[in-house]
Write a structure and sequence with these properties.
The chain is mainly α. It is about 80% helix and about 0% strand. The chain contains 5 helices and no strands. The two termini are about 45 Å apart. The mean pLDDT is about 80.
Length: about 130
């Protein structure tokens, strides 16, 4: 990837990261607290009929501080974070155009055309100087 492609990609990703952080700050705490509340309530409803393993898990859940469980959100947050590193469709097209343009400019035919264009421009500039 050339410098322009990297610039386009980084500009798009940085713009999307702001959206990600805003989403993260607004949506995650209420969902997290709700899931912990549901987990705590389900642990409260365990009885001896559920068996000793369920009672042990419920006691561990009750003993755990309310704000420490994060496993429920780990994978969705990682997925959401990685999703924001994928540029949008327009950025893909701009990067493809940049790469194609670089490939065209670096071909021998394009180099030959550029040297011919420079000669033509020099001739035209000389004519303009003589006309003054």
């Amino acid at each position: 990837m050339n410098n322009l492609s990297w610039f386009l990609y980084i500009a798009d990703v940085l713009y999307q990261q702001g959206t990600f952080l805003a989403l993260l700050c607004v949506i995650t705490p209420p969902i997290y607290l709700l899931s912990r509340l549901i987990s705590r309530l389900s642990a409260e409803n365990i009885t001896h009929r559920d068996g000793p393993a369920a009672i042990k898990r419920a006691e561990e859940e009750k003993a755990r501080p309310f704000i420490t469980t994060y496993k429920f959100f780990t994978y969705p947050l990682i997925g959401l974070f990685l999703l924001f590193f994928v540029p949008n469709k327009d950025t893909f097209y701009l990067i493809a155009a940049s790469e194609a343009g670089e490939m065209v400019v670096n071909t021998p035919e394009a180099q030959e055309i550029m040297s011919s264009l420079q000669e033509i421009l020099n001739v035209q500039l000389n004519k303009l100087k003589e006309a003054e």
